[in-house]
Amino acid sequence: MSEKRCTIAVLVENKPGVLARVSSLFRRRGFNIESLAVGTTEREDISRMTIVVRGNDRTLEQVMKQLNKLIEVIKVSDLSENSVERELALIKVHATPAKRSEIIEIANIFRARIVDVARDSFIIEITGDEEKINAFVDLMRQYGIKEMARTGKISMARGPKTVG
Amino acid sequence: MRAADAIVKALEMEGVEHIFGIPGGAILEVYDALYDSEIVHILTRHEQAAVHAADGYARATGRVGVAFATSGPGATNTVTGIATAYMDSSPLVVMTGQVPRPMIGNDAFQEADTTGITMPITKHNYLVTDEKQLLRIIKEAFYIASTGRPGPVLIDLPRDVTMADIDFDYPEKVDLIGYKPKIKGHPKQIKKAVDLIMKSERPIILAGGGVRLSNAHEEVLKLAETIPAFVVTTLMGKGAIPEEHPLCLGFIGMHGTKYGNYAVMEADLIIAIGCRFSDRTVGKFSEFAPNAKIIHIDIDPAEIGKNVRVDVPIVGDAKLILQEMIKMIKTKQRKEWMDRVKELKKKYPLKYKQDENVIKPQFVIEKIYELAPDAIVTTEVGQNQMWAAQYFKVKYPRQFITSGGLGTMGFGFPAAMGAQVAFPDKTVVDIAGDGSFLMNIQELATCVDYNIPVKVCVLNNAYLGMVRQWQQLFYKKRYSATRLRYPELSFEKIAEGFGAHGITVEKPSEVEDALKEAFEIDKPVVIDFHVEVEENVFPFVPPGRSLREVLDGE
Ligand SMILES: Cc1ncc(C[n+]2csc(CCOP(=O)(O)OP(=O)(O)O)c2C)c(N)n1
Known about the structure:
The structure holds 2 protein chains of 2 kinds. By secondary structure, chain A is of the alpha+beta class. Chain A has 2 domains: 4-81, ACT domain (Alpha-Beta Plaits, 2-Layer Sandwich), CATH 3.30.70.260; 84-155, Alpha-Beta Plaits (2-Layer Sandwich). Chain A has helices spanning 18-28, 57-69, 100-109, 130-141, and strands at 4-13, 32-40, 46-55, 73-78, 83-94, 113-117, 121-128, 145-150, 154-157. Chain B is α/β, with parallel strands linked by helices. Chain B has 3 domains: 3-163, Thiamin diphosphate (ThDP)-binding fold, Pyr/PP domains (Rossmann fold, 3-Layer(aba) Sandwich), CATH 3.40.50; 187-347, Rossmann fold (3-Layer(aba) Sandwich); 361-530, 3-Layer(aba) Sandwich (Rossmann fold), CATH 3.40.50. In chain B, helix 16 (361-371) packs across helix 17. The termini of chain B are far apart. The mean pLDDT of chain B is 97. Chains A and B meet through helix 1 and helix 2 of A and loops of B. The complex binds thiamine diphosphate.
């Protein structure tokens, strides 16, 4: 069976230990997490995890079903298709005076923002889907990336449908 | 009210009558509260045994078993017991002491991360961090343990929580947004299943442990007789149908009956009820029942399609689903298939070579069955377990108790103890191997102390027999670290040292008298049967092979 990637939104009770429970499940069953993002939702007592996982159809089905078995998991939804996906990255890039305007120009094209300026570096903030960020990161490499931090992906189905 | 007293009161309200456990510093407060309670506490001699006993109690009764342990080593000792219960979906509530909240995380004396350790082997677990949540948590624990696919739930109780002062308002209901087991089967799926059954020419029912958990025995029998269809079971499913019933083909899998295995491989429809298609049951996954469509009824959606492909899944409670199905099924005689299976049954019976001078382990089981067919039987793990499963024909549900999923040596004896506590008037027999018995032999003290008259029948083959069998068959008889016996070892004397009754049996002619003697004495008895040392369990489907590739040992 061929492998594919799947983005899953998991609504969980906002309680201590839930993240440990979810990650313990992935480890124990041998599922591979590519990225994981956790945050609050419109409801104080519920958190939302967005998990990107790789596997064949049977594994992905097991991931969803096993997650559903956790008592504190409220809802599991597959958001692999027809959804808005976003990541945020902070990139500290080497920016000599000679290259500054070039970098600013590229950042503008990508609608990225320069959020910190030092003598020979910028911190650039960019949001977007994974490909966009990858493309931007590739372009920045030529100037020298000193440090980078990327969030995991978050995702939401298009249209009026909600996962809650 | 002191929280410890509230805990005990909550347990009383849950209908708990027996608790198995061992006290210690972190759980002293709760034991103090227990002192005034009607609940009977059985002091086992090891926490692993406490959990197995609670598990045996749960399996024999269908009620939630309860075990207590202190923090640190007490809690870590429960791990094997909890994992055993988890693999076989047994409903337990385990309460462990924990160091006081301010000390958690500081490596305090007897601190262990009990909830972390038990996370993957419990259905759910709790660390009580707020005494106001305590009663809600206890209520939830019993609910979660006993509903849906049952399983063990652990509650870790920091000592200062048990000392706190709380109001006793025990909740009547639970409200868990993330836990709503699906009970009713989907009518469309049920209809599809019925259509498949009506079309089938060679149907077989495969009954698993879920039949017991859902109390669906009557429905299984009714379904089998209505279709009519033969019934095979998994090891955990033994007792789903009386095994002497003409439609029953015994248990299948690695050491299952040859006719059962063959019949499954020839079937055109498998109606699987409450089973998880484990490797020990189905052999090679891709070659299981190659000509059959598969209907899979299970309360746990994650079991559907996990190991084998399924044509018609039905998620829900087996009992309710079968009731719906039975209403719609019309009897259809399938003479050719009936004749074929009868022929298989006749052609490939279970058999062993009797011997006049040496006791055959199978013979001991046959005698136990003959003399005590109504006994509750528990087993240890290894050859003893397989011979017990093959030769003890289970009559009623919950009669046969064994560690199927985890295969835990040392389970049978404490589990027998738990079953005996639940049913003081029944004969309870632990069919043991010499290796397994040694793993929880200290419980003889508990049995004598509380007069729990369990009969331990040790099939003493001087080896870790099942491992030796694999070494014989797959490693050219290189018996690496499997020999157990040395001349000074006497189970009879050990039993007597504990104050139990011990019997040594060396000749086949003495087997019956020894068993009769044991069944008559109203105290714990250990019978040490010196059996054939290199007897093997057959039939044997080697691991990873299809159920057709059965070794006979001939
Ligand atoms: C706790 C534990 N340790 C090790 C094993 C591996 N194992 C499986 S069967 C077996 C031998 C059991 O020996 P014995 O209890 O004497 O039973 P027999 O097979 O001889 O009937 C062993 C060591 C196990 N199942 N459980």
